[in-house]
């Protein structure tokens, strides 16, 4: 799965290109597989492994805080099954804002997902995270909880809620994706 870096905001896209070039130069190539993600796709990922009670509690909270479109995103995707992959509700991932990218390590022509496997003493994800940090980006692999080695984002704020209210996020997501 290839991702289009042009879906990212221009400033971040340039930094991601520099990041990928640096990883290639180090012999640890990374390939983007996710850039812009709709709030509906985010809802699918978030709903994985969540109980009905957890889902209902979040729907109630979203509606109470003036975010009916985000609640609709969660309801409309229906039940999802799988391992937990995100704690971010729709609208709360920088992917929905064009400010995050997920990349995999390309090893022997295949996607390598291990953050511990080494090639020539190095691991692609750890080199990617270090290079991202050097460029002023925020790598998910260095987060204190729920490490997300493929993820890099433009902002240091963990969530759009650090900068916007629920109503603003809801309105922007509906404008972009509704």
UniProtKB/TrEMBL annotation:
Q: Kindly list the GO molecular function terms attached to this UniProt entry.
A: peptidase activity
Residue ranges annotated for the D-alanyl-D-alanine carboxypeptidase-like core domain, each copy included: 8-104
* Record-linked Pfam families: VanY
Q: Which GO terms describe its biological process?
A: proteolysis
Q: Which InterPro entries match?
A: VanY-like_core_dom, Zn_M74/Hedgehog-like
**What's the protein called, per UniProt?**
D-alanyl-D-alanine carboxypeptidase-like core domain-containing protein
Which organism is the protein's source? Answer: Denitratisoma oestradiolicum
Upper classification of the organism: Bacteria, Pseudomonadati, Pseudomonadota, Betaproteobacteria, Nitrosomonadales
